[in-house]
User: What shape does this take?
Amino acid sequence: MANQLHLLPLLLLAPSLHAQWCVPTTAVPYAPTMPGITQVVCNTIDRTSVDIEDFSNSYVNTGMSTVLQKGNTYPVTIAFTIDEQISPHMNLRIWVDFNHDGQLDDVGETLLSVDHLSGPVYNGQITIPNNALTGSTRMRVTAKMCSHGFHTLPTPCDLPPDPFGYHGEIEDYDVEIVDAVGVPEVQWATGVYVFADDAVTVLHFSLVSEGEVRAEIHDASGRQLLVGTAQHMAQGEQRLALPALPDRGAYSVRLWLNGEPITVRFVR
Assistant: This one.
């Protein structure tokens, strides 16, 4: 699968020392065939798993982590299974504890909420608010049976408990929230991110105004690796294709519009 990689600062991740998040104890599978999550993709996270990983509790702390930048929008993918005999649809949620208080249901902490999906894959996006606290925190992802099986809507801790049981799966991820970097006061490009795989590197961005655009990519030592040909581009959504990067690692991309640069870092 191609890695969808967003522009971000290079930081080491560590578990939060400030908050303790609830561990749902009601998410007990009723059978090995109970539906659950089979894939989560968000920024540098790309985790594939069986739908029910622990038959004693379908809550999973994955131990995986990523860096999310305030103000950025990130594509997300959630793949899941269903049990058509009980409930042909699933409800999906993504919560992030932005204020680091150990709760995941405060105002603004539900980043994704979609219901009555038949699957098997949902593609959407989440946006990190500018008022989020920086630092390490928790992201919780769930896929749960919907009201067709007489189930209540998903909540981060299943409180109050679903009277018919939390039929689905919950996965936890560590995230580091960071401030926006490398963006000038007058931002001429927004929503910038990189799609990179072994065949191509594609920059996606939105121009505030038209002009001549050129891109450069440098490695962590500052050595220039790729240079794109200058192109005149119109205002609005744009994409710029470059050759594939040679290796996985840390890089920086510099976009120029009419000689005005924006430089940001990313990880392939």
Residues 1-18, 182-186 have pLDDT under 50 and may be disordered. The chain is about 0% helix and 50% strand.
